[in-house]
Amino acid sequence: MEKGDEQRVLRSLRIMEAIVGTSMPMSLAQLAAKTNIPKASVARNVEALINSGYVALIPDRRELIPGPRAVSMSIGVLGNGHFRRECRAILRKLVQMTGETCNFTVLDGDQVKYIERVQTKMPLQVHLEAGTRAPLYCTAGGKLFLSNMTQPVRESILMTLQLDALTERTITDPIALNRELDRVQKLGYGVDNQEFIFGMIGMAVPVKTSKAGVTVAALVCHATVARTSIVQLEKHLPAFRSAALELSALILQ
Question: Which domains does the chain have, with CATH numbers?
Answer without folding.
Answer: 3-66 (1.10.10.10), 72-252 (3.30.450.40)
